[in-house]
């Protein structure tokens, strides 16, 4: 059974940093990709960042470029999202997602590209 477990969310002030983690169990995604999405209250879930596991190629939403960094640890089967200079508009539930096979950057921005999802972790940013 595949599980994705997010951690690292919390309450921070604007300008602070957080690092989210997503630990995968049940299978590896060494031939696939993993991504982060977020959903704020009253809004649709949106793409944040993704990484193709074998190539390490990353892509980001324009709103987080230069502030967020996605990375992965092969040995731990874990993907991270380092979030710097957080803004109130970054507040949301952040979801980790995994895809069994690697794909192009455009497709990885779509929720339908992913096979598995985590339960989410809350990030709150006070101004």
Please describe the topology of this protein.
Blueprint (H helix, E strand, L loop, with lengths): L2 E5 L2 E4 L4 E8 L7 E7 L6 E7 L5 E3 L7 E6 L4 E6 L8 E8 L5 H4 L7 E2 L3 E6 L1
Parallel strand pairs: 2-11
Antiparallel strand pairs: 1-3, 3-8, 4-5, 4-9, 5-6, 7-8, 9-10, 9-11
Structure report:
Helix content is 3%, strand content 49%. The mean pLDDT is 95. The protein has one helix at residues 105-108, and strands at 3-7, 10-13, 18-25, 33-39, 46-52, 58-60, 68-73, 78-83, 92-99, 116-117, 121-126. The protein is mainly β and 127 residues long. Strands 2, 4, 5, 6, 9, 10 and 11 form a seven-stranded mixed β-sheet that branches. A four-stranded antiparallel β-sheet has the order 1-3-8-7, with no helix packed on it. The chain is globular. It starts with a strand and ends with a strand.
Short description:
This protein is mostly beta strands and 127 residues long.
Strand content: over 45%
How far apart, in Å, are the first and last alpha carbons?
A: 40 Å
Largest sheet features = 7 strands, mixed
Radius of gyration: 13 Å
Q: What is the string of SSEs from the N terminus onward? A: EEEEEEEEEHEE
Ranges where pLDDT stays below 50 over 5 or more residues in a row are none
Task: Find the structural class using helix and strand composition.
Answer: mainly beta
Alpha plus pi helix count? 1
Helix share, percent: under 10%
Give the overall form.
globular
Provide mean pLDDT, rounded. Answer: 95
Please name the defining characteristics of this protein:
single chain, 127 residues, mainly beta, seven-stranded mixed beta sheet, four-stranded antiparallel beta sheet, 49% strand
């Amino acid at each position: 059974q595949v599980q994705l477990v997010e951690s690292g969310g919390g309450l921070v002030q604007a300008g602070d940093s957080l690092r989210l983690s997503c630990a995968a169990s049940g299978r590896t995604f060494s031939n696939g990709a993993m991504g982060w999405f977020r959903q704020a209250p009253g809004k649709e879930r949106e793409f944040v960042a993704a990484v193709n596991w074998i190539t390490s190629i990353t892509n980001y939403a324009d709103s987080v470029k230069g502030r967020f960094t996605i990375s992965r640890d092969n040995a731990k089967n874990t993907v991270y999202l380092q979030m710097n200079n957080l803004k109130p508009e970054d507040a949301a539930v952040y979801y980790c997602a995994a895809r069994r096979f690697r794909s192009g950057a455009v497709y990885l921005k779509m929720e339908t590209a992913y096979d598995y999802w985590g339960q989410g972790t809350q990030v709150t940013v006070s101004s």
